[in-house]
User: Which sequence fits this backbone?
């Protein structure tokens, strides 16, 4: 009997041990998962948030005390007590529904962000699922709708404890600072205010991690970083924009129908009624006629198009950097590649535009003064410039201030979709072309600083053009001295402010842009080179080709390309890891001199192509495709940046940083920009030109070509350049009043 009793006792002890273990396991499971359910999802921080927050709310209702940090307590002392109580009820209801495994409630924690892949490679955002969150709602009872918030967690305390490998050897490593903010997408009921959500999130974080991981003394959630699916309420400016764009579309259709009917019936067409006709304006864009005229410099079309593509390319990388890359730290090693110099020194393409602007300004003004015996109608010249440039800019500003906010949503929209806020106070400066001085830190249409500089140079141009026309070479001396003084001003600004050779190395990039990039006086030298080049081309070279020995032609091309390569890649060695820092004077001299030398190199390309020394290069730059493309460049310049920002801000998933991915984004940004530019040209730019022509009668006459002297005819390499082709209108370089038709004036 003793043995069975011992066996029973042993069995009982074993059962008691198993029961105790089961109870402890259940207790630990309840503690870890916060609920009795042991599904994998319940172990996530998002599920724990609703369980802990609901328990906290219940304890608060019983004790009347808020168990939270002192920094959060103030959040609960709000005037919206009723809204907070409704938030409490909704959180408890979601918790209960989660315990009951109801799908509508499970969507709330399901949409939260998680710890991202690539945290130590700079991936410091976990967006979650924005669309699922704002679409989440109850299926019965009082409606609960989801509200998405992007929490900004200060993780400096956590990262300070990480033991580094100390393998940073890159020259730009000081720019690769320790992570400070980790952004986490959270989904809460729409009845929870930002302050309430901030307090609950801090409580849950403090419960699990204490104060050692996230700095709970800082605000984690702000109202501007939260969004729920609320009914759209159109403002007055929104309604105006909708009516305006609807009227434009109506005018396009009505004018096109009028054009079609009159053409079919053989009736006379009134120019004013044709202003908006797509049938009338589209052929002007896409029809290319190869002409041979002294007033046409065909290679400018190719230079203009390549510069425009370069602008879109460079701005695309600027936007690409801000995307949520899973390998964001790769950017710092990318900066040390030769390929990156196309972006770091990409501003040289702007100097191409300034050179062409000065050249065309001088050429057009001299043609006008030839026609009017040395006189310029300056008021009308300014008026025509303004009304031709401004409509497209004004339309973009109107879009940004109205319909832009409805173009996208999501976590990246919180970060990048803020262009309308920049325009709220600065739109008027953009329309007056003074934004580069009035608001250099918050320009409405960011790339429009160029329009401001070029317009200001246009208004100053009579001070240079009239003396040049009247006194010729005698006026060159003070003009050259003035240009050198402007160069010296840029050098002095660099030295005074300790600006470095590379923007990426500068600790004061915004100040550098304001003092050396946006101001008009820093761009005058390049523009004056174009003016002087245009003067000699018009007075000494127009209507004839100047012969040049082959060895001098080769020398010219080698020097021009060598100069351009030196300007673009010359300073590359300075950014390599083992190269010493450049002295301040090197950056101070390189910035202005690279711009001017680039302009001289472009000047050689234009001169050589115009005089028949361009060969295949001239054939390519003068390709008819570029002629049609160049007619869209102005609208592309004005529109492309907003397209890039909208495309980037609409992202709701992670991306990957690589040159291939950047080029893919460039292609789709470029394609959308090109499509919108065609519409903008047909809807705004071409109609303004048509209305101007109908009212003022400009552009009907074609100036006669300059007669050739026997001496000049001897210098023509092949057949005479000046000859009449058919009876059709020739696409000529317009006088200064029509500069807006030219993208170099954009």
Assistant:
């Amino acid at each position: 009997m003793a043995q069975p009793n011992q066996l029973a006792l042993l069995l009982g002890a074993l059962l008691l041990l198993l029961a105790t273990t089961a109870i402890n396991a259940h207790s630990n499971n309840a503690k870890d998962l916060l609920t009795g359910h042991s599904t994998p999802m319940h172990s996530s921080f998002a599920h724990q948030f609703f369980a802990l927050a609901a328990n906290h709310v219940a304890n608060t209702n019983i004790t009347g005390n808020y168990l939270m940090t002192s920094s959060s307590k103030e959040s609960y002392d709000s005037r919206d007590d009723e809204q907070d109580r409704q938030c409490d009820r909704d959180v408890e209801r979601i918790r209960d529904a989660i315990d009951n495994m109801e799908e509508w409630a499970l969507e709330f924690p399901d949409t939260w962000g998680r710890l991202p892949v690539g945290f130590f490679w700079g991936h410091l955002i976990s967006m979650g699922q924005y669309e699922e969150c704002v679409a989440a709602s109850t299926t019965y009872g009082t409606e609960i709708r989801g509200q998405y918030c992007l929490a900004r967690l200060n993780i400096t305390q956590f990262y300070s404890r990480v033991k580094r490998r100390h393998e940073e050897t890159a020259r730009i490593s000081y720019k690769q600072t320790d992570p400070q903010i980790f952004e986490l997408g959270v989904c809460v009921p729409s009845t929870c205010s930002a302050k309430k959500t901030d307090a609950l999130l801090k409580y849950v974080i403090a419960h699990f991690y204490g104060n050692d991981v996230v700095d709970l003394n800082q605000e984690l959630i702000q109202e501007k970083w939260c969004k729920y699916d609320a009914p759209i309420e159109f403002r007055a400016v929104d309604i105006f924009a909708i009516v305006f764009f609807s009227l434009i579309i109506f005018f396009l259709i009505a004018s096109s129908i009028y054009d079609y009917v009159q053409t079919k019936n053989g009736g006379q067409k009134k120019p004013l009624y044709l202003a908006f006709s797509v049938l009338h304006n589209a052929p002007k864009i896409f029809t290319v006629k190869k002409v041979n005229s002294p007033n046409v410099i065909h290679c400018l079309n190719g230079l203009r198009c390549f510069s425009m593509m370069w602008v879109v390319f460079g701005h695309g990388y600027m936007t690409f950097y801000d995307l949520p890359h899973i390998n964001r730290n790769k950017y710092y090693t990318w900066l040390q590649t030769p390929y990156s110099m196309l972006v770091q020194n990409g501003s040289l393409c702007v100097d191409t535009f300034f050179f062409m602007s000065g050249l065309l300004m001088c050429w057009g003004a001299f043609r006008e003064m030839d026609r009017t015996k040395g006189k310029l109608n300056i008021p009308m010249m300014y008026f025509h410039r303004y009304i031709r440039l401004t409509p497209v800019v004004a339309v973009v500003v109107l879009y940004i201030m109205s319909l832009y906010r409805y173009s996208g949503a999501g976590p990246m929209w919180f970060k990048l979709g803020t262009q309308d806020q920049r325009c709220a106070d600065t739109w008027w400066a953009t329309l007056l072309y003074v934004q580069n001085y009035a608001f250099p830190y918050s320009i409405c249409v960011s790339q429009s600083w160029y329009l401001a500089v070029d317009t200001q140079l246009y208004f100053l141009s009579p001070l240079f053009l009239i003396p040049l026309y009247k006194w010729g070479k005698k006026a060159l001396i003070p003009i050259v001295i003035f240009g050198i003084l402007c160069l010296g001003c840029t050098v002095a600004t660099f030295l005074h402010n300790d600006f470095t050779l590379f923007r990426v190395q500068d600790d004061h990039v915004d100040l550098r842009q304001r003092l050396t990039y946006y101001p008009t006086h820093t761009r005058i030298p390049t523009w004056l080179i174009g003016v002087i080049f245009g003067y000699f081309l018009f007075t000494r070279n127009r209507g004839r080709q100047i012969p040049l020995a082959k060895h001098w032609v080769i020398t010219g091309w080698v020097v021009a390309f060598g100069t351009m390569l030196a300007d673009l890649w010359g300073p590359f060695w300075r950014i390599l890891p083992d190269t010493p820092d450049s002295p301040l004077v090197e950056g101070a001299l390189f910035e202005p001199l690279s711009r001017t030398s680039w302009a001289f190199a472009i000047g050689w390309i234009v001169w050589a192509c115009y005089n028949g020394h361009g060969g295949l290069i001239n054939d390519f730059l003068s390709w008819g495709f570029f002629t049609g493309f160049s007619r869209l460049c102005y609208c592309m310049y004005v529109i492309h940046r907003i397209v890039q920002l909208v495309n980037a801000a609409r992202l709701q998933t992670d991306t990957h940083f690589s040159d291939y991915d950047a080029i893919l984004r460039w292609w789709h940004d470029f394609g959308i920009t090109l499509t919108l530019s065609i519409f903008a040209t047909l809807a705004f730019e071409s109609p303004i030109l048509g209305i101007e022509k109908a009212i003022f009668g400009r552009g009907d006459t074609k100036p006669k070509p300059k007669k050739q002297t026997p001496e000049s005819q001897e210098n023509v390499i092949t057949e005479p350049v000046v000859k009449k082709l058919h009876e059709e209108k020739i696409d000529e370089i317009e006088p200064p009043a029509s500069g807006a038709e030219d993208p170099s004036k954009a």
Summary: The first strand starts at residue 125 and ends at 126. Residues 7-11, 13-39, 66-76, 699-746 have pLDDT under 50 and may be disordered. The two ends are 107 Å apart (CA to CA). Residues 659-696 form the longest helix (38 residues).
